[in-house]
Amino acid sequence: MKARPSIAFDKFSGTAKEVTARDTKNGTVLSVRAKQSQVSTPAQKNIRAMLTNTGRTYRKLSDEQQRAWSLFAKDIRSNRPNTLPGQDTRLTGCSVFMRHNCNRALLGLSPIKWPPEETVAVPDFSFGNVTVTPALIEFTGIATHSSGLRLCVTMTRGISRGVSQGWGKAVIIDPGFIPDRGVADVTRIYASVLGVTPVVGEKYFITAYWIDRATGFAGQRTLCSRECVAAV
Hints:
elongated; 22% helix
């Protein structure tokens, strides 16, 4: 069976101590590199550490385990945005291992050394509305799903409202949020992670998607943007 699961980290690039991740037409390739950038934000350091630790875990797998991931990867295709039908990128066992286990690492879980027994159809994130004010950042009308899912939310700092595409600047503010009765209030989390609060008149780009904590499978990213308004 050919599966099209969405994986939260569908594209890795950058250097994490010994590990350099490069995105190629054949998937993500890991190589060894000792040098890293001189200036890093705390968030970048955390991602680099996560990549390094996950890459080390893969290299320590047995030959049998690595073969199992390679076989598992044959039934998985990348589903990047703007990919034409029939042009899905074939993934390697290493890249699939990295993506599943980086998703789990975001949730504070230890890596799985064997691939999941089957693919998991993670639902898309669906909601009614999202409000952005200086005192409130909140999703409402969230469709409820399995208790094994966690909501990963990324968001930008304020950007000029004339900008139409800013999702590439979004950072993870919470990888494992659990909505309460269809509501996700991320106000305090946003302020804690980014050290700022929304400013009236500026635009904020947001993505959100579900992660299955047991396997690391993730749903499609839901993208939206909102201009910060005065309290409603």
